[in-house]
Amino acid sequence: MAAPMSNVDEIRDRVILGEFGVKNVHTTDYPGNYPGYDDTWDLEKFKKNFRIDIVHSDENMLEFDMIGIDAAIANAFRRILLAEVPTMAIEKAFIYNNTSIIQDEILAHRLGLVPIKADPRLFEYRNPEDQEGTEIDTIQLQLKVKCTRNPRAPKDSSDPKELYLNHMVYSGDIKWLPIGNQADVFADAKIGPVHGDILLAQLRPGQELDIVMHCVKGIGKDHAKFSPVATASYRLLPEITLLQTIEGEQAERILVTFDYLILIWGHEHV
Q: Whole-model pTM?
């Protein structure tokens, strides 16, 4: 017996949160699952029903709705963003001098996690057998900082910010050292750390850092430092259906709930 069309659409397209549990959590979006229901995949039908609406976009975040797509495919996009979109990150740190209290390996690890502003499409993957990088596969950076006493500090001051110079080492202290013709090719790229206020180490007078770093192209599947996003997540689009008329105190409680949902999801979703 063929299933009613409206019931099939509800089963295929919605995860239903009931009073005592969640229904339809497994995808059934494949042909032949429902007798008498044409569920074959068609490119033109998919193009007609699928769309992407940008909800919010700025320098650090992109939020969008994918409409007309199965949750499994949305999750595939999420996993691709995390693991398979290439970026540039620090792979090798040549530490020539480190007299700070941070061990070399800990400092190298912190440097590797600093996000680097560079277009990976302009670089090639570096051959693991190559000992030295070239202008087509490597970005060279340098961190050279020495802490000294501030000769103009007040005599009665105990604030390190007044007593010392360069005692806080930030990612903004990392400088780009062009290789080959990179200075001409990437003249307008402003290669360097994405954020200049990431604290890397604290120094005291006499302590210094002298490090040269090589950035290479990689993907998050190899190491999390290559992941282009801090996190990527998806959530199901809510559809709220009232099964009966709500009046009085219950209606007021419902309004409070709706206000909260609007605050979380936005007007376009509630």
A: 0.74
